[in-house]
């Protein structure tokens, strides 16, 4: 428990007390059981994936998926990173790792840049038809990608970006715009009008205000959007599969290429290691930036 | 390491045999292969192609669906591949309408290829009277692969079975010896493949084509033989024990490899799983056709080639087609992939016991085409779903499956 002590209105002090011991009640036991089941729902398959990636195939063939490795080996991890084939290119999922980085950077710049400016304009400038535009944008957020996939392929073919990193990046940016614009717009609309009025009187420039005042106030929301976008772009399969060309397939597609087979032999240990390698980057992002994600979601614009 | 050695050997063989083409070109390929055996086999073709002065670039999208969305996207996006793995006749007809189809009928005829293709292969690659596909790998959709140690321990000889009755007669003996008689997995892919392999084997080509033809004949549902096939499907799938729910064919074959079960009835691509476990055909495992089979259901993995291209590119595409069906190269390809050669005059020295069973079977029994080559996609998938539902629900009667198929037929073709 904390108590705010305000002997002087300018200086506030927080006094801490030890937490009150909690009693186990029926409802708290039920909550614990439910949460344990939720955790097990993810943890058990994860355990199977990890131990399988450390076994050899001779043991895996016997089908006891929960047993610990009889011979612990990191060989599947080495094969997955270095040797696994995607088509005739047998250079491991590391090829996809670098492709994903190449896709991620322009996709982030395009999607966040476009959405931040659009959100800023809609929130703080007197844009004609802003309400209608926002409504259309909001509606677009609910259109499934699969419905517009073929027209997008034709359009990207016409502008000669189909099968390139830029094709993937542009599609990511376009598809992310509705949600990200709404996030930025809602964040910026809380900025007091006094700040904007003073800024307009000072310089009056749309871009100068954005660059020198709005962007420095956007740290929290940028972290939120970065995490959302990095996770979404890194984990994307369908856009990378559809719009990526020769040598530009992201890590998820390389993973699928090495794992999926309808009639070929299966090496589960290598498949599991490749899946874990592909999942590590977004997990790391969450571990490193997770704290800021919560702060960003709960913070208002003027705290930026 | 192994792949490089093989590529080197292929290169050396081909250097002596193949003159360089006048023009070199980059062949852009689309395929769905991913397993080591498939990639090793593909490298045999690529080495030969490079010996002709051409280069290879590719997009590989392995998938387990009937829809070849990746290929359609490439064509729609204005980046169609020069050669592509595709079985559905519908896509070739679409390409024809778009001026992008390229028959190889004349090329095959002029180069003496057509005469050396088994009838089942020829049927699979012909669409509306033209040879549109370059046959690459031949598989049989329903064979029995058995563990020879288990057979010996149980005192049975699957190679001696001449009918399914013979096979079932040995069931008790195998179970008494402590083994599962027949391994069985649990998903639509296996249920569907088992069914059409049984239709070919038990009901014969006439009923098979009435069931799986481009326009199915609804009177086939009244055939008692179809009911017998459905009931045999039940008898086989009821062998599935604990852990079979949603079990893949590869995991199911593993139960035979590890000596838990005697045999597995599935497509002959099971061989890849055996070989990956270091097992040798004829020594560790044996292969037989479905006992008493009336026809073998044949899968022919084939490349289509793109039309409407420049003369130089067309020559490169035809060079590739010639490589794929070259008897020596096709035999080397089959040895790597675990398939059988598509040509009847392919050299036999690299063939194993299973290849011999396949080619002898095609010659003496004959084959029917895999439904992917002939059936309407919706109809084919409906059959898969009906049979998987039948497998999953032990209380379901064969008559209910027939009713379900009738309803699906009416919905699709009615």
Instruction: Please report which band the strand proportion of chain A falls in: under 5%, 5-15%, 15-25%, 25-35%, 35-45% or over 45%.
Output: under 5%
Quote the CATH topology of the largest domain in chain B.
D-Maltodextrin-Binding Protein, domain 2
- Low confidence ranges of chain A: 1-7
Classification by helices and strands of chain B = alpha/beta
Biggest sheet details of chain A:
2 strands, antiparallel
What is the CATH C-level name of the largest domain in chain A?
A: Mainly Alpha
The chain-level mean pLDDT of chain B equals: 90
What is the chain-wise order of helices and strands of chain A? EEHHHHHHHHHHHHH
| SS field, number of helical segments of chain A | 13
Q: How many domains make up the coordinates of chain B?
A: 2
- Which term fits the overall shape of chain B? globular
Q: What is the terminal separation of chain B in angstroms?
A: 56 Å
**What shape does the CA trace of chain A take?**
globular
The helix content of chain B is 40-55%
Oligomeric state: heterodimer
Instruction: Show the largest interface.
Output: A-B, 36 and 46 residues
Span between N and C termini of chain A?
Answer: 28 Å
Class inferred from helices and paired strands of chain A = mainly alpha
Detailed description of the structure:
The complex is a heterodimer of chains A (304) and B (414). With 304 residues, chain A is mainly alpha-helical. Chain A folds into two domains: 21-73, no CATH class; 94-303, MetI-like fold (Orthogonal Bundle), CATH 1.10.3720.10. Chain A contains 13 helices and two strands, in the order ββααααααααααααα. Chain A has helices at residues 26-53, 57-60, 75-82, 94-124, 130-140, 145-158, 165-188, 193-202, 206-214, 219-235, 238-243, 251-259, 268-298, and strands spanning 2-8, 11-16. Chain A has a two-stranded antiparallel ribbon. In chain A, β1 and β2 (11-16) form a beta hairpin. In chain B, α1 runs parallel beside α2, α10 (188-212) packs across α18 and α18 packs antiparallel against α19. Chain B is α/β, with parallel strands linked by helices and 414 residues long. Chain B folds into two domains: 2-138 and 299-355, D-Maltodextrin-Binding Protein, domain 2, CATH 3.40.190.10; 143-297 and 367-413, Periplasmic binding protein-like II (D-Maltodextrin-Binding Protein, domain 2), CATH 3.40.190. Chain B contains 19 helices and twelve strands.
